[in-house]
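Posting for a labmate who doesn't have an account.
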Amino acid sequence: MAKAKEDTVKAKADKPKVKDDTAKPKKAAPAKAAAAKAVTEKAAPAKAASAKAASEKAAPAKAASVQPARLQQHFREAVVPALMKQFGFKTAMQVPRIDKIVLNMGVGEAVNDKKILDNAVGDMTRIAGQKPVVTKAKKSIAGFKIRKDYPIGCMVTLRRGRMYEFLDRLVSVAIPRIRDFRGIAARSFDGRGNFNLGVKEQIISPEIEYDKIDALRGLNITITTTAKTDEEARALLAAFKFPFKN
């Protein structure tokens, strides 16, 4: 019995080993990894190049948006030193500056037709480059057929960059287009450094096309400054080439 068991064990030991072919596909894994690595290496430079190109395209647009308005830069470089020398200011913070510009347009005809107010809002949007706010009546006036909280006009407040851009267009293009223009009277200051200018026709603005308007409308332009006196405010506006009468 024991001898039979020894023969069986010896037969198993002498039996030739058969190679297992099922393990061969494992060799494909390194080749697959190498192919994927090659694809990644080829795609990396293209991806980096596309990202670099996108960043280069975005950089000029960002730089252009940050660039200040022409008159804003003129104020910092030329107006501030000139006013400091003229009035003897010790620091640049004492120099008066324009705080805001308010455009106001009254549209009493809107009582009978609301489309007139929509046209006025459209004109104001093109002039200011910013959508205005519709103003409403504070109280009822029977003689003018106006009820309380009825829309009768529009206004817009400009600050910072848009304010200087509007002032540039106003001084350089719009005011010279006024009919029979002989200069702006300096008596329109309110005694606290603020200036008011009335415009009879909105078509003096270069953004308004004469053939596309429904009616001629006037508007009021209020320039609010930080000046303490009218003399300082006039010197500030004159530095922006405001055409005052001599």
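Reply:
Got it, the structure tokens are right above this. The CA atoms of residues 12 and 182 lie 123 Å apart.
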